[in-house]
Amino acid sequence: MRLSRYFLPILRETPKEAEIVSHRLMLRAGMIRQEAAGIYTWLPLGLRVLQKVTEIVREEMNRAGAIELLMPTLQLADLWRETGRYEAYGPEMLRIKDRHERELLYGPTNEDMITAIFRAYVRSYRELPKILYHIQWKFRDEQRPRFGVMRGREFLMKDAYSFDVDEASARLAYHRMFVSYLRIFARMGLRVIPMRAETGPIGGDQSHEFIILAETGESAVFCDAGVLELPVPDETVDYDGDLSPIVKQWTSLYAATEDVHDEARFERETPEGRRIHTRGIEVGQVFFFGDKYSKPMHAMITGPDGVERPFQGGSYGVGVSRLVGALIEANHDEAGIIWPASVAPFKVGLANLKAGDDAVDAACAKIYEALETAGVDVLYDDSDERPGAKFAKLDLIGLPYQLIVGPKGLAEGKVEVKTRATGARESLSVDEAISRLT
Ligand code: ATP
Ligand code: MG
Ligand code: MG
Ligand code: MG
């Protein structure tokens, strides 16, 4: 992409309304624009990151055997009346009336709807187990939308739902999702800790929140430093095999959110030097809730014994849009964002330091074409801005590599490759630079 043809509305001033660094940087880097409190446009650069994050979540859900579908954002109130959640959900739910005075709502989550879908088609244990998921916008009329996309009102969530004939097999689904969450966040370069958690309005008796440790996080958390060292399973993990040793390893050291924290137990189980008490950002949560929805909605299946029973369920959410903010909280410096390679909007920023100079233009054109042909995402700054402004812009938007082409270096046949994360610079020939970055 040529910057001259792109749409990258960089802000010079630091927006005053933004309290935390990720919100400031997303606004300054032209990633998002606020349209109303907690409601954002994803500008082109932000959208590219959101899509990268979405794709990692999708690939790992599919790898774990979950099946994608897409449910609508609007739901009928009557559906939620079946489970008693229409009244219970409270003011976070955005309630809407259509022209026929029919009551609708903008879905904050989808347990009720997926249970109705399941009930319409599945009758027998032979069709189980199943895990269905979608990646869809949600709306929660948060009391205090803030921190940009971290606590929006409209936000993108991946939500998966599991269906099993009995509790033992439902636990296996929980394990699958648990392990796939470890992989999702690790692929984004994030250290995320599963912590015992309260179940809230989703309900149920077992739950873990997946938490990134950060001072700007909204919940207080307590854990054993040992969890920061645990290995994440690689892509060869067998989702049909026994995942319980992995889950056990990740849940046997103390880790809990403030809602379920037990100080006496923490002190008993965790040596003093390893006790971490800090704040965290919730990027995902998994719930086992048994027949909480299937029972009131009468979503019955016949077991091997011929007896009908409500299915055993769980739900599994990832805050896809929140992750974009969380990734910046975890990866930035004074100059701007430092994207991990797997979620970077472009891999390379190509800076032409003297647009209009024949030799520099030709070298940039050659590099640009070679990288594009090799399938490398490159943002080519072909503008006539001064070099300092170009460097600042590239540092701000945080692409993993900067390829800098100027007349002085080129006279000696050299261009420069700068690695954003380390600041390391290499002087290379044009061909070396191309092969270095493909
Ligand atoms: P929180 O405690 O932050 O309000 P939650 O526990 O209400 O989140 P869940 O119902 O567990 O949220 O939803 C699954 C995921 O969706 C959360 O783990 C979080 O990453 C994301 N999420 C929830 N609310 C928001 C929001 N207002 N803006 C952005 N992401 C959100
Ligand atoms: Mg909430
Ligand atoms: Mg929560
Ligand atoms: Mg939650």
Please provide a brief summary of the model.
With 438 residues, the chain is an alpha+beta fold. It contains 13 helices and 23 strands.
Could you explain the architecture of this structure?
The chain is an alpha+beta fold and 438 residues long. 31% of the residues lie in helices and 28% in strands. The strands form 6 sheets. Strands 3, 7, 8, 9, 10, 11, 12, 13 and 16 form a 9-stranded mixed sheet that branches. The longest helix is centred in the middle third of the chain and has 21 residues, at 167-187. The two termini are 16 Å apart. It binds adenosine-5'-triphosphate (ATP) and magnesium ion (3 copies).
Shape: globular
Query: What is the percent of helical residues?
Result: 25-40%
Q: How would you state the average pLDDT, rounded? A: 96
Number of helices: 13
The count of strands amounts to: 23
Strand content range: 25-35%
Bound heterogens, unique: adenosine-5'-triphosphate, magnesium ion
Gap between N and C termini, in Å?
A: 16 Å
Largest β-sheet summary: 9 strands, mixed
Instruction: Provide the gyration radius in Å.
Output: 24 Å
Structural class: alpha+beta
Low-confidence stretches: none
